[in-house]
Amino acid sequence: MRKIIECVPNFSEGREESTLMALARAIESVPNVTLLGREADIDHHRSVFTMAGEPEAVLEAAIRVVGEAAARIDLTRHRGEHLRLGAADVLPFVPVRGVSLTECVELAWRAGEAIWQRFGVPVYFYEAAAKSPDRVRLEDVRRGQFEGLLQELKAGSGRVPDIGAGQLHPTAGAVIVGARKFLIAYNINLATDRLEIAKAIAKKIRTSSGGLPHVKAMGMMLHSRGLAQVSMNLTDFEQTPVHEVFAAVEREAAAYGVSVAGSELIGFIPRHAVEMGFRAALKFEQFTSGSVLENALDAKLES
Amino acid sequence: MRKIIECVPNFSEGREESTLMALARAIESVPNVTLLGREADIDHHRSVFTMAGEPEAVLEAAIRVVGEAAARIDLTRHRGEHLRLGAADVLPFVPVRGVSLTECVELAWRAGEAIWQRFGVPVYFYEAAAKSPDRVRLEDVRRGQFEGLLQELKAGSGRVPDIGAGQLHPTAGAVIVGARKFLIAYNINLATDRLEIAKAIAKKIRTSSGGLPHVKAMGMMLHSRGLAQVSMNLTDFEQTPVHEVFAAVEREAAAYGVSVAGSELIGFIPRHAVEMGFRAALKFEQFTSGSVLENALDAKLES
Questions:
Q1: Concatenated DSSP letters for B140-171?
Q2: How far apart are the C-alpha atoms of B186 and B164, rounded to whole Å?
Q3: Which of A42, B6, B121, B176 could hold B52 in an S-S bridge, CB 3.0 to 4.6 Å?
Q4: Does the predicted interface ipTM exceed a cut of 0.95?
């Protein structure tokens, strides 16, 4: 099976099309890497690129695009609503198929070394790639942002980058490089306009209040349609599958006499999550990836 | 999107391993064709091979394997329980991805011409590739089998092959070549040992008694597990999706106070059927093939 990883760099640029184009070109300059998506937000002055492909190719594309961002984005002139520490701000490596999280941690560390060597941009590691427990959470690493941390480090703070010379880059700051599991952004629309029901369900199912593991959830209002929505991030679909989250929300909604109007994905879902859901919905006793004709064909062709 | 078809030749040989190996080699002699499965039945003295790949490659492999079968299998010495007209008995071309049934009909016709030209084996066309309405059904074409039809044609019957010189091949008979939609062999096990319930449900849902379109179903007993089973062939999963069949059986079973113990596939399921089922189970408002990360990646790489 061909190995596939995803990489989702976030940049402190959401307005200048020529810069966004240059970042896209840097990614696409590497063969066997596919740029799957690009979203830019003017108010946040920030963009998110989604690329995928074979691990070594994605690694090289990730390094190149960080270099491009460092050359083009000057944080001393950047004002946006979104917190940021670097021109290339966050760089997570994500396993998709045939790759472990541990392998993505190794890729993150290699990316960090190369970014410092090639471009002189210092690096912090976060999430699964963190080198110390106090750097696991992105918000802890980014605290104070570019301007604050720049001053703090000059004043001798111990919050020095994991790779670098103890300071931030004067215009590109630092890149926060990491590895994490695939994130599925998944929303369920309720057939009601009562926001409090969506909020109650979100509270009931989310990890932080003792609900399902690996689920972040909040209730919000879809004003355009007059529907309340449970908006979620599923941070480990193999431990807490999408279809189990759907079933939990449907069950909780039923307790309020409310049905599910529909659900939606923001972005992509890995094939394995689809197959897991199909298997469960139809109560298959035996169902593997190889039960799907195209998968069996791909497996034979790749072997 | 890469085009994929399946071809499922049936041969009048289920016992001699050297012959089965030769048939497999004939298929595998064509690049870009994958032999996905091979099943042989000693009592039926018959085997079924499943191959898939790009249309032109599968066409060539199908022609070659028919030639190999005609050279090795002598119907005048063949006695088995299964009805048969040819050494290579049935040769259906099946669309899997990016290919229409009409394209598979064209392939079937081209295969028929080549089989006659290269090997002197006459050809009947059936199902979607039939040249006349009385040859659509396989059982109509095969009526009388090899021995009966051989006599009938010598006596001047009008049941002459669609391609050929008006007679059967003396040892290889004729090949029945066709095109049909993908067949999903799908069984649902009921949490009961009451066979009459499985039979009643099968009767309720199958097309022939006014149930769901494109469903063949019968009730049978899984003696090893003491469970009654609804055993089905779904002959057009895009018109009658697997998940709708599951829901129908589950609903009918519930009316008898019986639950579904589990379900199983015999053979493969196309990816599209899996995605359709997932979409329905989670009530997705928008869900396309491109929502799946690997599909989006494949589409970009192939474009």
A1: HHHTTHHHHHHHHHHTT-S---SBSSSS-BTT
A2: 37
A3: B6
A4: no
Give the residue from chain B lying closest to A51, CA to CA: B297
CA B135, B136, B142, B143 dihedral sign is negative
List the CATH number of the domain containing B156.
3.30.990.10
- What whole-number distance in Å separates Cα of residue B25 and Cα of residue B35? 9
How many Cβ atoms from other residues are within 10 Å of residue A285's Cβ?
A: 12
The one catalytic residue among A44, A82, A243, A272: A82
Residue of A4, A52, A242 with shortest CB distance to B282: A242
B214 and B153 in one domain? no
Asked if pLDDT for residue A302 goes beyond 80, the answer is: no
Q: How many other CB atoms sit within 10 Å of the CB of residue B49? A: 25
**Owner of token pair 């019957």:** B157
For B262, the closest of A189, A278, A285 (CB atoms) is: A285
Test B285 with A4 for CB contact under 8 angstroms: no
B246 touches chain A (CB under 8 A): yes
Mean pLDDT of A99-113: 98
**Same-domain check for residues A125 and A26:** yes
Longest dimension (CA), chain B: 62
Helix (H) or strand (E) holding B245: helix B242-255
Nearest-10 Cα torsion for A84, A180, A68, A166: 60
**Domain assignment of residue A252, yes or no:** yes
Do residues B189 and B225 lie in contact, with contact meaning Cβ atoms separated by under 8 Å? Answer: yes
Angle between helices B271-281 and B242-255 (to 10 degrees): 50
- The 10s digit of each residue's pLDDT in A184-210 is 999 999 999 999 999 999 999 999 999
Q: What is the pTM of this model?
A: 0.89
Q: Residue B192: what pLDDT?
A: 98
Q: Which residues of chain B have pLDDT under 50?
A: none
Domain that holds residue B55: 4-179
How far apart, in whole angstroms, are the C-alpha atoms of residue B173 and residue B175?
7
Domain boundary among B134, B151, B179: B179
Contacts of B270 in chain A (CB under 8 A): 292-294
Q: What is the average per-residue pLDDT within A95-110?
A: 97
What region, left, alpha or beta, does residue A131 occupy, with left being phi > 0 and alpha being psi -120 to 50 degrees?
A: alpha
pLDDT of residue A224: 87
- Rounded Cα–Cα distance for residues A199 and A217 (Å): 9
Asked if pLDDT for residue A25 goes beyond 70, the answer is yes
Instruction: Report CA B25 to chain centroid distance, whole Å.
Output: 21
Q: Does A287 touch chain B (CB under 8 A)?
A: yes
Among the options B44, B45, B78, B82, which is catalytic? B82
Q: Which residue in B182, B180, B190, B181 sits closest to B264, CA to CA?
A: B190
Count of the separate structural domains present in chain B? 2
Mean pLDDT for chain A? 96
What was the pLDDT predicted at A1? 66
Residue carrying structure tokens 């976030």: A10
As given in the structure block, the two tokens for residue B171 are 């040892």
Active site residue A44: no
**Do the domain assignments include residue A130?**
yes
Residue with tokens 């700051």: A173
